[in-house]
Amino acid sequence: MRYTVAEAAKAIGKSKPTILRAIRRGQISATRDDAGAFRIEPAELHRVFPSLEPDADHDPAEDTTRRDDLRQRLAVAEARLAETQEAVRTRDDVIRDLRARLDTATAQLGEAWQQVRLLTDRTIPPRRRWWHWGA
Question: Helix or strand or coil: residue 3?
Fold first, then answer.
């Protein structure tokens, strides 16, 4: 059963000019009948435009199965997301702790370095020559 332009427009919920533009652009192919009207194969029309009519071969039980499968996959994804968020929180806590330890160690090292500078004499005595010129 081939569609006329009007039937094709009704089948996809579009206007007749939309169908004619698609034919003119080459998006869908159509043949002309003896009267000169376009005839469009349903497979060709629905290749470009989705059908508004419910699919006769469609099984509602399959939708329920798909929905259950999607719910299960969503639950798994949410569990993975929760695990990842917990790992990120743990990592952030470790980083915060290490930064605090580094700050403490840097402060302690700074104090110790000041004490070492005070205790050591950093002046270098002048070099004595073993040969005195002109003396």
Answer: strand
Please give the structure tokens belonging to residue 94.
């470790």
Domain ranges of the chain: 5-48
Q: Extract the runs of DSSP E, i.e. beta strands, from the chain.
A: 31-32, 38-39
What was the pLDDT predicted at 133? 67
Q: How far apart are CA 14 and CA 19, in angstroms?
A: 8
pLDDT in tens, 62-96: 878 888 999 999 999 999 999 999 999 999 999 99
Are 1 and 40 a contacting pair, CB within 8 Å? no
Which two three-digit tokens encode residue 62? 């399959």
N-to-C CA span, the chain: 128
45-54 pLDDT, tens digit each: 988 988 776 6
Tracing tokens 């509602």 back to the chain, one arrives at 60
> For residue 41, what are its two tokens?
């194969």
Question: Which residue in this structure is represented by tokens 């605090």?
Answer: 100
- Whole-structure pTM over 0.90, yes or no? no
- For every residue of 19-38, DSSP letters joined together read HHHHHHHTSS--EE-TTS-E
How many beta carbons lie within 10 A of that of residue 2, not counting itself?
A: 15
